[in-house]
Write a structure and sequence with these properties.
Elements: H1 2-14, E1 19-35, E2 38-56, E3 59-65, H2 70-90, E4 104-108, H3 120-136, E5 143-159, E6 164-182, E7 185-197, H4 200-206, H5 208-225, E8 232-238, H6 240-252, H7 257-260, E9 289-291, E10 314-318, E11 321-322, H8 329-335, E12 343-344, E13 353-354, E14 358-361, H9 368-372, E15 377-381, E16 384-389, E17 395-400, E18 403-407, E19 410-414, E20 419-423, H10 424-429, E21 431-447, E22 452-471
Parallel strand pairs: 4-6, 8-15, 14-22
Antiparallel strand pairs: 1-2, 1-5, 2-3, 5-6, 6-7, 8-22, 9-10, 9-14, 10-11, 12-13, 15-18, 16-17, 17-20, 18-19, 20-22, 21-22
Helix pairs in contact: 1-2, 3-5
């Protein structure tokens, strides 16, 4: 495959491309599911191919093939060059890429327990463990959908600017959807996921069955003890899970440079952020939001992006100030910057576009006890069932799943579905304290046309929001 990738780049240059890149991707893995204790079959994934992207005269073209011969790759290169030439004739502004320092690198995420050496029966036992532990609670859980998946992602990326990056990243995940029915009432934990880059040992260490038991017990307690939440302006303490969805939706997405410049307007939406907002205050001094692909074993892990640029932590907000957007080479050039390695594609047959990786609210210096000790009346939102945000990523709504009343510095009884409706600026401006500990939660971030769902982590520290509006369902 090394020779075929290099051949694709060389062929594009022969055909008149000003720039060329080729990306080989191979994915192999398995997935299993169980519904109400019964296995639902085994799926085996085996997919590979090469995608080629070129610039010709300021136009861009992309093509791919899963027939891995020189003849087929050459035809794909010809299609990409032809598309780029056609695009150059209709574009008002030529596409240019930022200048970057490129490397020749091989990197691999090692597995202590290689899931490729583990039988499907043993993998299914992980789901049976969740099933058994949930049943052992004695709670009525009539709907239990559990799934397991693993994949090894092998990539080889080369471009005409000197990059040659090869990587092997294994990814492993367990997901569950549990419905609790007690006292003629129903509550659910919809599609909770635990996921990592690495071997099966990471899932075993994480003990997803313990997470499932905790969710079931919290839902039962909500049914029997849950009361209405307070309404009006109160204090709110949000968990790393809730902070994670908030930073992902109201910071990560609107800071994607392609969205800022309008490319995503008809697909994933627009952004309230404008290029001249760099340096503008968007939150309080305790708010720092980071997107970091390099966190070891993270679900969104990579060390080089799909344009071959070396990855690093991206400080989207630092001390309440907008400091950086997520960029690839095209939008970095527009901003007069270097790319910060946010170009990602979900497969060989998709173009790399600007994406998040692991986005989180950076830790502060408060313990959890300090966050709640002087809250006279408030809510602690531990998890959420629903969220909504507008296309500009400014008006948003979060509905709590597990949540508790805070009264005079103490956590009291559960409250049902507290609703936070707030603007992005008001949300981050109301944060007056952030906790010390960070936790992460996996997700699949959708964007692009055709759609691309990439693995990401969302999370951060606990945070306290002062005097914000909560309402009831």
């Amino acid at each position: 495959m090394h020779e075929l990738v290099e051949f694709a780049v060389e062929k594009a240059l022969e055909l008149g491309a000003d720039y060329a890149e080729a990306r080989f991707e191979e994915k192999n893995g398995t997935s299993l599911a169980m519904k109400n204790g019964s296995p639902e079959g085994l799926e085996v994934l085996a997919d590979r191919g090469i995608g080629v992207r070129v610039l010709v005269g300021g136009g861009m073209g992309f093509a791919s093939t899963n027939v891995l011969t020189k003849e087929s790759v050459a035809e794909g290169v010809k299609r990409a060059v032809k598309l780029a030439k056609a695009a150059s004739r209709v574009r008002n502004e030529p596409i240019r890429f930022s200048e970057e320092n490129f490397h020749e690198v091989y990197y691999e995420v090692k597995m202590r327990k290689d899931f490729r050496d583990v039988s499907p029966e043993e993998k299914l036992e992980l789901l049976r463990k969740i099933e058994e532990e949930v049943k052992a609670t004695g709670v009525n859980v009539p709907m239990r959908y559990l799934s397991y998946s693993d994949q090894v992602w092998h990539k080889i990326i080369a471009n005409s600017d000197g990059a040659f990056i090869e990587s092997i990243i294994p990814r492993v995940s367990i997901m569950y959807n549990l419905v609790v029915f007690e006292n003629s009432q129903m509550e659910q934990a919809p599609f909770v996921q635990r996921a990592f880059s690495g071997g099966l040992e990471l899932i075993e260490k994480d003990e997803p069955w313990e997470w499932a038991v905790k969710d079931v017990q919290a839902l039962k307690k909500l049914i029997y003890e849950g009361k209405k939440p307070p309404e009006g302006k109160v204090d709110l303490v949000i968990s790393p899970e809730v902070a994670g969805i908030a930073v992902h939706e109201s910071v990560g997405h609107p800071y994607e440079a392609d969205r800022i410049f309008g490319r995503e307007a008809a697909q994933a939406g627009e952004s309230f952020v404008k290029p001249d907002m760099l340096g503008e205050r968007i939150g309080s001094e305790v708010v720092t939001v980071i997107d970091d692909p390099t966190i070891p074993n993270s679900w969104g892990f990579y060390l080089y992006d799909d344009e071959g640029v070396k990855a690093r932590p991206r400080y989207l907000i630092r001390d309440g100030i907008i400091t950086e957007f997520l960029t690839n080479r095209e939008y970095a050039y527009k901003l007069g910057q270097h790319s910060n390695a946010a170009a990602r594609a979900i497969n060989y047959n998709r173009e790399p576009i600007v994406r998040m990786a692991n986005t989180y609210l950076a830790p502060g210096d408060h313990s959890f006890e300090e966050l709640i000790e002087d809250v006279k009346l408030g809510v602690y939102m531990v998890s959420f069932n629903e969220w909504n945000i507008d296309d500009r990523r400014y008006q948003q709504r979060y509905i709590g799943r597990e949540a508790y009343l805070i009264e005079n510095g103490e956590i009291k009884h559960p409250v049902r579905r507290p609703i936070l409706e707030i603007t992005t600026r008001a949300l981050w401006s109301s944060v007056d304290a952030v906790g010390k500990e960070v936790a992460f939660y996996p997700g699949t971030c959708g964007k692009g046309e055709p759609g691309q769902g990439v693995p990401v982590w969302m999370g951060g520290a606990h945070a306290r929001l002062r005097d914000i509006p909560l309402r009831r369902p």
